[in-house]
Amino acid sequence: MVGELEFERPIIELRNKIQELRDFATNTDVDLSNEIGKLETRLEKVEKDIYEHLSPWNRVQIARHPERPTTLDYISRLFTNFFECHGDRTFGDDEAIVAGIAKFHGMPITVIGHQRGKDTKENIRRNFGMPHPEGYRKALRLMKQAEKFNRPIVCFIDTKGAYPGKAAEERGQSEAIARNLFEMAGLTVPVICIVIGEGGSGGALALGIGNHLHMLENSTYSVISPEGAAALLWKDATLAKQAAETMKITAPDLKGLGIVDEVVQEVRGGAHRQVDEQAQYIDNVLKESLQKLTKLTPEQLVHERYLKYKKIGQFSFENDTIGVK
């Protein structure tokens, strides 16, 4: 089965068994409703046990699910009158980032997000969701336009990281990311960032400096992938599961650390199970954030954003050394 996850195998086996019994009952006119009912009760219990006790590595797997909704999936469900804008006015257009103007419940906004593909052809077109410098410059161009016309900005984060290729480095990948961080910190309009899949390294952070940072329940946000961390720490990428346990990269962990403002509930089993329902959860969080932020003055927005990042991490001075609590 496409996108089947290892920890979901007991659930999938039960679902298949239930479907077999239903098909058999339909074809033979045998009443198996009692047996099917028992299996459905058991399935409900197994799903609850598994999905309510997901490990960090399980959440990493769900965040990487090939059918997980992308930025464009949410744009079509959350916004109206979306008009996509292209190009950075310097080099070209990067399809790993989509950006444009839309309306959210009648309010004009600017929406920007990483975009990966769901099959090989689209992944190649989107460069697997890993932007080049021109992608970040396109995003910044739209942000400055939003500031000029006083439109709130919504950023969807879903990337393994910025593209590390030779051409990207030649065109100033590091400078483009750093410029976005600098400029986003001082934007005088509301900026809301939502991690919808993988939030990887500076490639994610370049769209992640906002007044509110939200994360879907089964998304991840980290300076490096679990495989990369395992390779660096223990010289063995196969220890990725262990790395995921210790890195604190999941939404509940980051909420506890004060980095994430709100964890957005996901439908049972992951956002890919019911995209329309998941979009509604995001809709509710966006409305709440915009209601709060649109009441603030430009100066208050910038100051609040400054305080948000200033308070991340607590420092103590002990024995003339600086330690991080």
UniProtKB/TrEMBL annotation:
<keyword id="KW-0443">Lipid metabolism</keyword>
<protein>
    <recommendedName>
        <fullName>Acetyl-coenzyme A carboxylase carboxyl transferase subunit alpha</fullName>
        <ecNumber>2.1.3.15</ecNumber>
    </recommendedName>
</protein>
<keyword id="KW-0444">Lipid biosynthesis</keyword>
<keyword id="KW-0963">Cytoplasm</keyword>
<keyword id="KW-0276">Fatty acid metabolism</keyword>
<dbReference type="GO" id="GO:0016740">
    <property type="term" value="F:transferase activity"/>
</dbReference>
<dbReference type="InterPro" id="IPR001095">
    <property type="entry name" value="Acetyl_CoA_COase_a_su"/>
</dbReference>
<keyword id="KW-0436">Ligase</keyword>
<feature type="domain" description="CoA carboxyltransferase C-terminal">
    <location>
        <begin position="38"/>
        <end position="292"/>
    </location>
</feature>
<dbReference type="GO" id="GO:0003989">
    <property type="term" value="F:acetyl-CoA carboxylase activity"/>
</dbReference>
<comment type="similarity">
    <text>Belongs to the AccA family.</text>
</comment>
<dbReference type="Pfam" id="PF03255">
    <property type="entry name" value="ACCA"/>
</dbReference>
<comment type="subunit">
    <text>Acetyl-CoA carboxylase is a heterohexamer composed of biotin carboxyl carrier protein (AccB), biotin carboxylase (AccC) and two subunits each of ACCase subunit alpha (AccA) and ACCase subunit beta (AccD).</text>
</comment>
<keyword id="KW-0547">Nucleotide-binding</keyword>
<dbReference type="InterPro" id="IPR029045">
    <property type="entry name" value="ClpP/crotonase-like_dom_sf"/>
</dbReference>
<comment type="function">
    <text>Component of the acetyl coenzyme A carboxylase (ACC) complex. First, biotin carboxylase catalyzes the carboxylation of biotin on its carrier protein (BCCP) and then the CO(2) group is transferred by the carboxyltransferase to acetyl-CoA to form malonyl-CoA.</text>
</comment>
<dbReference type="InterPro" id="IPR011763">
    <property type="entry name" value="COA_CT_C"/>
</dbReference>
<keyword id="KW-0067">ATP-binding</keyword>
<keyword id="KW-0808">Transferase</keyword>
<keyword id="KW-0275">Fatty acid biosynthesis</keyword>
<comment type="pathway">
    <text>Lipid metabolism; malonyl-CoA biosynthesis; malonyl-CoA from acetyl-CoA: step 1/1.</text>
</comment>
